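In this supplementary section we document a worked example of the pipeline. Step one takes a protein sequence of length 207 as its only input; no multiple sequence alignment statistics are reported here. Step two produces a three-dimensional model, which step three serialises into structure tokens for compact storage. The input and output of this example are shown verbatim.
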Amino acid sequence: MLDIAQLPPEAFRRWDETPDAWFYAAPRFVTHIDAGAIAAVTQLYRELFPPGGGILDVCSSWVSHLPEEVGYREVVGIGMNAAELAANPRLTRRLVHDLNADPRLPLADASLDAAGLCVSVDYLTNPVAVLRDIGRVLRPGGPLVITFSNRCFPTKAIAIWLTLNDPQRCRLVEGCLQAAGLWRDIQTLDRSPGGGDPLYAVVGRRA
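The serialised model returned by step three reads:
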């Protein structure tokens, strides 16, 4: 686990510091990891998200990778592109919100039961603040599943992400969750399916 407090501000800057709204203005109806890695994300959600619960999809897109056979009370998607969110059939609420401009989620305290942050943690310029606010929104005991691979848009990924290998990235995400101060039972899982994109998860539960 990395000590986030020891990292300089430059660690969370990007090559491209133009407004993120410009970068995400055009919808991208593609998936950013392969089918095996997507199936691994879905299986984690199947294992950890409560059926019938309220789910938060952070940095959402046109797909949420939720298991098709499981129903949820609501699925709230927060993302950067309105067209992508509109095309996502699993979402019951759609919120366009730039977490790098404002890390506070436009949601009530303790209003949802679980959250997923899929292949996007590497783009957050203030990940500790975002993870802390996700904790505010979840009920006690609710899981947060942060998944990532070794693929990214390098111009928008934070600088430190590009300097680390996969195990070090896991420790970075663990450190961000620890620094956020609202999470317990933090663990890292390697769910790489083999033969394709790797898939790692850092999971915590709302204290």
